[in-house]
Design a protein that fits this description.
elongated; three-stranded antiparallel sheet; 45% strand; alpha+beta
Length: 83
């Protein structure tokens, strides 16, 4: 049976963030943000397993406004075999 490892990435499809996670500017190209993440993760062997909306209280921890365009992307890739 295949063993899996997982990675969870936070995606903000409305705002571009700077290197410190602060809002840089509004983004009208959310599809491009998601597409770039999928390409980047795919190059490293990750497969998208789920896209889950972030909960409202978690937006404040990210220091961004409450936003329905923030998601968690769950990726998986095989990491070996189990008995």
């Amino acid at each position: 049976m295949t063993a899996w490892e997982y990675s969870v990435e936070t995606i903000n499809l409305e705002y571009k963030l700077d290197e410190h996670g602060n809002i840089k500017q509004p983004c009208w190209e959310g599809d491009l943000i998601l597409e770039e993440l999928l390409r980047q993760m795919g190059r490293d062997g990750w497969e998208l397993a789920a896209l889950v909306p972030a909960q409202p209280d978690q937006h404040f921890q990210l220091k961004i406004p409450k936003n329905p365009w923030v998601f968690y992307a769950v990726f998986k890739r095989p990491c070996g075999e189990t008995d």
